[in-house]
Sequence to fold (88 residues):
Amino acid sequence: VDDLRERAEAPAAAERVAAADAWGDRCYVLLGDAVATGMPVDEIFWEVHRSNMTKASATNTNGKGTKADGFESPVLKNILQTASGHQG
Fold:
């Protein structure tokens, strides 16, 4: 029984490794773009996260949060201006 379980789990483990590699590659490209263009990664991430948390709970069939009355768009202009040393 253990052998059967191990053989069944092996493809799933390999798929998970492949998925992790693909995810890591995407992160590498995105973070590399941010570094190359001087984007403040942490500040942008947390502001977008804050905005996403103002969405209503997922109620549609695809599981995505919906923009309800309390939704607040991310405020990125000030973050970018501060990062570049410009005001206004």
User: Anything to note?
Assistant: The chain has three helices and no strands. The mean pLDDT is 86.
